[in-house]
TrEMBL record:
One of its GO terms (molecular function) is DNA-directed RNA polymerase activity. One of its GO terms (cellular component) is DNA-directed RNA polymerase complex. It catalyses: RNA(n) + a ribonucleoside 5'-triphosphate = RNA(n+1) + diphosphate. Belongs to the RNA polymerase beta chain family. Its EC number is 2.7.7.6. InterPro entries: DNA-dir_RNA_pol_su2 (IPR015712), RNA_pol_bsu_protrusion (IPR007644), RNA_pol_Rpb2_2 (IPR007642), RNA_pol_Rpb2_2_sf (IPR037034), RNA_pol_Rpb2_3 (IPR007645), RNA_pol_Rpb2_7 (IPR007641). This is DNA-directed RNA polymerase.
Amino acid sequence: MRLKQEDTLLNNNTNNLYMSEIPVDKQKLAAPIKSVVDKFQLLPEFLKVRGLVKQHLDSFNYFVNTGIKKVVSANDRIVSYIDPGIYLRFKDVRIGNPSMTTYEKINPHTCRLADMTYAAPIFADIEYMQESHGQRTRLEKKNVVMGRMPIMLRSCRCVLYGKDEAELARLGECPLDPGGYFIIKGAEKMIPIREQLAKNRIIIDADNKGNITASVTSISETIKSQTVIQMDKEKIYLLLNQFVKKIPIMVVMKALGMESDQEECAHIGIYTQEQALAYLDTKVQYSLERGAFLILRDIFLVNVPVRCNNFRPKCLYVAVMLRRMMEATLNKHAIDDKDYVGNKHLELSGQLISLLFEDLFKKTIKKVGDNIDKALAAISRSRALDPSRLLCELDIISEGLKWTLSTGNLPTNRFRMQSKGVTQTLGRMSFIGTLGFMTKVSQQFDKSRKVSGPRALHPSQWGMLCPCDTPEGEGCGLDKNLALMTHVTTDEDEGPLISLVCRKCGLIGYYSHKLKTGFCSSCKIGENVSSMKLPYACKLLIQELQSMNIVPCLKLVER
């Protein structure tokens, strides 16, 4: 045994000495890639650093660290209707480590063998008002368990996060397993990427009769709506579900505060904003006080916020929609292609979990509020009214998350929708098949329809979606897979990048390790190079323009 150890040490020292003697051509490493063969050599290193399921992990990590706090902070207070003095307020929320109970830790391998759910407790810091025999006391509690959250393997809350191969083998896990899935009742469940039309984006299209329409699927933190502006017989109307019939668009513009144009609505006697709102009140589907005003403020184009009842931003947004419709009338090429990748949105697992958690959390706080009112309405109470106890007794969040991930059904009251097939059982027939499951992109389209448009291979999919990997049968062209080097951005904001820009020519420079300073390749000097913070999206835009032989120049202004 001692001889083997000595031989091993000798071999390691020899290898280290040999590696130190190998000359490294730094200029070749820093040189731009000229051929596809050279670029293919970067693929193994890219997969080692990034992997194929990073988009799932980043999306879930964003929800765990940021998204869940936003959901709770938007609905952080429970107030009794009978006595507004009795309340419960959420001060903070966080997700703990995976455990069987509150503190007994578990690992994924144990959950697979014991048919358990790999989940972690959701802790909340709360403040509430307790009542006992007519006396009220304001109390605070920390680490109150309000439910259990299933944890994605290899995420930042997983016990496998940051482990090396030896530690993974000790926990019974394969070092090559990419993660990105859940363990629900012993079964491995994954949420495939769903392809949808982009939200909060103007889409210009033509209906079956050739009428030009501009539609926007608006979504905010509280509501989702669809706004359609249609051109019919050289007249433009607004189509909204809250109105019983289509509304002339100029009436809507006057109701939003634009009163300068007098001729368009003169034939129906509308000249002012009050007259336009009164006209819209007669067209509201449900009779409400100031119904038209509330619809225009809270439902119509909800992606454009209204502050201090100022509708001017919505007026400008509608004007942009009308202008694009006019352009499409004169030029048919201005009509948007719905199959274009830029008009699509990939919904990741973290976004679906956030949507489901928000719906379950609202059900929980509503149930707690109802229980508080029932306790206050009781004639006699044997013990003090403790809202924190009512919160801990409910198990809506845990059971709802477990049921959705187990069955694949996603019912959400927020958008009044029922989705099926949200989750799938992870296939383990082969390692390549497992990776294919993790990069699968499914389209929300009826597969029984014999339509060739959504199934066809679009030129904009080049480099983003695999042109070959698609199933046979009714799912052909609808179920796709991401390309190997596709990068899917998540909700997390990218931090600004430090870029070097030449003050003289405006081109982006680079850092010269030889000169130990910034250098401009156009001016051939480094004296005029300054550093600036550049958003990541702006840097991507500049690179896309450069790939089309368009060299943008930046103009720097000192502040």
